[in-house]
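Hi C.,

You asked whether I'd gotten around to modeling the 346-residue construct. I have! Everything is below, sequence then structure, no commentary in between.
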Amino acid sequence: MLADVVHVLPHAHTLGGTERTVLDLLDSPELNDVSQRVVFVRSGPFTSFPESLVLTSQEGGWQRLPSTVLAVAQARPKVIHSWLLQGNLVGAAARVLWPLSSLVTSERNLGHTLTPAKRRLERIVASLESVATANSSAVRNAAVQRLPQRERKMRVILPGIEPPLRPARVVPTTAVMVGRLHPVKDHSTALRAWAFVRKENPGAVLTIVGDGPERSGLEALGCSLGLQDGVRFVGQTDPRPHLFGAQVYLSTSLAEGFSRSLLEALLAGVPSVASAVGGVAEIPPGALHLVPPGNDHAVAAVLNEVLRDADAQTHAARMADVVASRFSARKCHRAYRQLYRELGVS
């Protein structure tokens, strides 16, 4: 099966920001003249990806890696568009097999998890890429700092999404967090801050949407802080009922390339509080409340300030239009279409 563009993703097990970005590109009217396919490095269910567009099987584990590389090369794409380090490595290997393609790599985080071994692999990828993309200036700067030779190849394409649709049913909550339960998201700081918030707002409830390796530990921490009635862990589910039912959105990440969940909250007109890390510098001034990472007292103070502010919802709704103009799906997808055109996809 031939394709203009083959996207290479680590997996489709969970629909994180990167997976959802590729889904948007596959379905974008701005790219309806581009033949796109997708492969996954790791086996597992395709989740929301149409099977007709997937070149790899759901089975096989890591032993299927050579066939995954071969599947990309056999599609003879004009562009191999790889995402995150695992995808970038497979994309680089496929370009060796099919050197007539261009390799577009995608950096989506600040490199905070890169071990020395992974940095060596990153250098290999950089030697084979045609263009490197980043989803924020912070991500670009971090990548260039690690490998200065990437500067001439690196370009920033800001995220762009459609505003989330309000569901028929909303779930009232005081605050909501959306994201995988991973140490980098620092939910523990959020829980400690929430214990302080509850002193001023005894009935306040924090809803945490998402799942991951930290869940049992976070649930235990919540109990130790006396938050049995103050925190709800709802797992991996549609966040919109909780998002539209919330008085405030909270992100306490220690590192973040660009948070799609935060962007969705802003576009939904929800007052938002976020750690001053990574891509939040791209958000228009005044659209959200910034807090220092890891500081539970500062987080609690700002949350209480927002909850006291009778005009917070009105201001957030007004700023949603400003955010939408900067992060429109059309603008983002046109940027990718222009990139593909530059690389020979007519």
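If it helps when you're writing up: The radius of gyration is 21 Å.

Thanks,
B.
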